[in-house]
């Protein structure tokens, strides 16, 4: 049985209008945002939505590890710390950096508008990518950046030879 002509016309391909879809998504996001902040009529603006009241803790150190011709270099940023607050150990080709960032002084919590700086103990262990001479490791701490340089063993150094072309 053939379908009526009108039903076939209504199934015609409708062109996709991406900008109308973006506008719809924008309206939905605006609505969700309004519900979050002003959902109920008697709900007041929540400053802790913008400024979290819980204290943030130090996460894992962010490091750069790279190889130079004769050594492995590890760099990390430790702002606000002194060299006395940091310990570096190398055991079985694993470099461990530990330390503690201490608060500078006692300030009453109600006097803060925002508190995002983090304090506490941290530790990061990194497996070194090559065999190294741990007894010759050196560390420099300058302007809040810790740089550790560890010479590679002779076997771990890249050997370069020139190959002649026949």
Summarize the topology.
Layout: H1 5-10, H2 18-38, H3 47-50, E1 63-67, E2 71-77, E3 86-91, E4 94-101, E5 120-127, E6 138-142, E7 145-151
Antiparallel strand pairs: 1-2, 2-7, 3-4, 4-5, 6-7
Please give a structural write-up.
With 166 residues, this protein is α+β, with helices and mostly antiparallel strands. It has 2 domains: 17-50; 63-151, Sandwich (Immunoglobulin-like), CATH 2.60.40. It contains 3 helices and 7 strands. The protein has helices at residues 5-10, 18-38, 47-50, and strands at residues 63-67, 71-77, 86-91, 94-101, 120-127, 138-142, 145-151. The strands form 2 sheets. The protein has a 4-stranded antiparallel beta sheet with strand order 1-2-7-6, with no helix packed on it. The termini are far apart.
* Span between termini: 80 Å
Report helical residue fraction: 10-25%
Number of strands: 7
**Can you name the CATH architecture of the largest domain?**
Sandwich
Number of helices: 3
**What is the CATH topology descriptor of the largest domain?**
Immunoglobulin-like
Key terms for this structure?
Immunoglobulin-like; 3 helices; flat; 166 residues; four-stranded antiparallel sheet
């Amino acid at each position: 049985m053939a379908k009526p002509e009108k039903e076939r016309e209504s199934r015609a391909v409708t062109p996709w209008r991406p900008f109308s879809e973006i506008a719809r998504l924008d309206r939905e996001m605006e609505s969700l945002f309004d519900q979050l902040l002003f959902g109920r009529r008697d709900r007041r603006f929540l400053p802790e939505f913008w400024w979290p009241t819980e204290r943030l803790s130090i996460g894992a150190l962010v490091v750069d590890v790279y190889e130079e011709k004769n050594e492995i270099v590890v760099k990390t940023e430790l702002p606000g710390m002194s060299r006395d607050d940091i310990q570096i150990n190398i055991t079985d080709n694993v470099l461990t950096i530990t330390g503690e960032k201490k608060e500078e002084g006692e300030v009453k919590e109600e006097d803060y508008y925002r508190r995002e700086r983090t304090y506490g103990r941290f530790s990061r262990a990194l497996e070194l990518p090559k065999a190294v001479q741990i007894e010759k490791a050196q560390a420099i701490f300058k302007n809040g950046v810790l740089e550790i340089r560890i010479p590679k063993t002779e076997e771990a150094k890249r050997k370069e030879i020139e190959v002649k072309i026949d």
